[in-house]
Write a structure and sequence with these properties.
CATH superfamily of chain A: P-loop containing nucleotide triphosphate hydrolases
Helix content of chain A: 25-40%
Strand content of chain A: 15-25%
CATH topology of chain B: Rossmann fold
CATH architecture of chain A: 3-Layer(aba) Sandwich
Shape of chain B: globular
CATH class of chain A: Alpha Beta
Number of strands of chain B: 6
Oligomer: heterodimer
Order of helices and strands of chain B: HEEHHEEHEE
Structural class of chain A: alpha/beta
Largest sheet of chain A: 9 strands, mixed
Shape of chain A: globular
Number of domains of chain B: 1
Radius of gyration of chain A: 22 Å
Number of domains of chain A: 1
Number of helices of chain B: 4
Chain lengths: ~325, ~120
């Protein structure tokens, strides 16, 4: 075999142009044959799922796709993506988090709380026995993360080429299957750089497609008119090309009105959700809609039913502890 | 199919290199998709076992030396033939058999006949 790079003996651009029609215009019968061949076959595509069992027949993270997670500041995007990452790890999906807004130690502290269902040890804890229990919990969590979780240690902004290189490295060398990028705006210069945003998302979708890695891209929504407004895809900040290019779109919405009513001592309906995860795009799935969730403050988990205890994040599928 | 974009981009700039096509399941997990940055001597392209070859655009293989490899004899032959049809300069196919942690070559194909094995 010839080695390395050499001068092409063919004018490839001309060849592509000349053969384009022959290669791309095909009779419909070929695709129909393919549809017939696949009839009755089990869907073998390896998918990953959201943490909640009630969503498994509605939504999936497919290989080579990009999912946009968007929400207004303070609506719990990072908590939601942290919980989802734990779930993906339990599904044996090698995962990497690149958070430019939170240090790895803080990310892990929050995730360990979601994983164990318990508040982490703080300075207020002095009891040796209690500390030993928490030490044990951290060690168990550490064992759970082994060969399942990697973190990119970089805060603030990052150069586009650098993060794209990191993503390619993770896919090729670490065999990462789920990459969480938090957030898009830290990778692009300026909120009004629409061309930069379009180019970046285009690159991210190409990496996902080339490597089969699923990329979770965290992004912001415009501030809504009122706290009780429920967002839709038109509320995504920046260029519309972001929504157009990604495969899936999940909007995180926190029921701030319920919270403020509770704080004001008003009666609130128990079955009123604390948060909603709104799927407003799923390119390769049929379902779009809203998932009602309730917040368990002790574990910082979003749970699937009102009053449900925290889920066991170490075992898949996740059931209540 | 993954990994061909880099090769196409290179060919559009007037450069070429040999290409290795992996045909086994989850090939993309261990074939570096960013082969260009790794400085290897071959481009790597992964074709998953359940991909239908008639749906794939293999024109980027025209006039290149191509190596097709995998553990499924029938699939290696199928991709070998498709590469030949796409106008590759020379195609070599290698069928492996996995024995524990090792892979043993059990068959080789060559459009020029020189590396056909067993004869």
């Amino acid at each position: 075999m010839a080695g390395m790079i050499y001068e092409d003996t063919l004018d490839f651009a001309t060849y592509l142009a000349q053969t384009e029609a022959k290669a791309k215009v095909k009779p419909a019968a070929g695709w129909i044959e393919s549809l017939i061949e696949d009839l009755g076959k089990e869907d073998t595509e390896r998918k990953a799922y959201l943490p909640w069992e009630k969503t498994h027949n509605l939504f999936a993270f497919r290989p080579g796709e990009v999912t946009l997670w968007a929400g207004v500041n303070g609506h719990g995007k990072s908590l939601m993506t942290g919980l989802t990452t734990l779930s993906l790890m339990a599904q044996d999906e090698r995962s990497c988090i690149a958070s430019f807004e939170m240090k790895p130690r803080k990310t892990l502290e929050r995730m360990s709380r979601q994983w164990s269902g318990q508040r982490p040890a703080g300075e207020w804890m002095r009891d040796e026995q209690v500390l030993a229990t928490y030490r044990d919990l951290y060690e168990q969590f550490g064992a759970f993360t082994d060969k399942r979780l990697w973190l990119y240690d970089q805060q603030g902004t990052v150069k586009t080429d650098v993060i794209l290189g990191v993503m390619r490295y993770c896919a090729a060398e670490l065999r990462i299957r789920q990459f969480v990028l938090d957030s898009l705006m830290k990778c692009v210069q300026g909120e009004d750089d629409y061309n930069g945003q379009k180019r970046f998302v285009d690159e991210v979708t190409a990496i996902a497609r080339d490597t089969g890695m699923h990329v979770h891209l965290v992004h912001h929504l415009r501030k809504l008119g009122s706290e009780s407004d429920i967002p839709d895809k038109s509320d995504v900040k920046g260029t519309g090309a972001i929504s157009d290019q990604v495969d899936n779109m999940l909007l995180v919405w926190r029921n701030k009105k319920k919270e403020s009513d509770q704080h004001a001592g008003k009666t609130v309906a128990v079955d009123e959700p604390d948060a909603r995860l709104i799927c407003c795009k799923q390119r390769n799935g049929e379902w779009e809609g809203r998932i009602a969730l309730w917040f368990d403050a002790e574990s910082q988990q979003y749970v699937p039913k009102a009053g449900s205890p925290a889920m066991n994040m170490a075992a898949w599928p996740h059931r209540s502890i | 199919m993954r990994g061909q974009e880099n090769l196409i981009a290179m060919r559009l700039k007037g450069k070429a290199m040999a290409v290795s096509i992996g045909t086994d399941k989850d090939q993309s997990l261990y074939l570096p998709a960013n082969w260009k940055s790794l400085g290897t001597s071959h481009a790597f392209v992964a074709i998953d076992p359940d991909e239908k070859l008639r749906d794939l655009d293999l024109r980027f293989l025209v006039s290149l030396r191509v190596h097709v490899e995998g553990c499924d004899d029938a699939r290696v032959v199928e991709v070998f033939e498709a590469a030949k049809q796409a106008g590759a300069l020379r195609v070599i196919g290698t069928v492996f058999k996995r024995q524990g942690e090792e892979y043993r070559t059990v068959r080789m194909l060559d459009t020029e006949g020189l590396m056909e094995w067993p004869e």
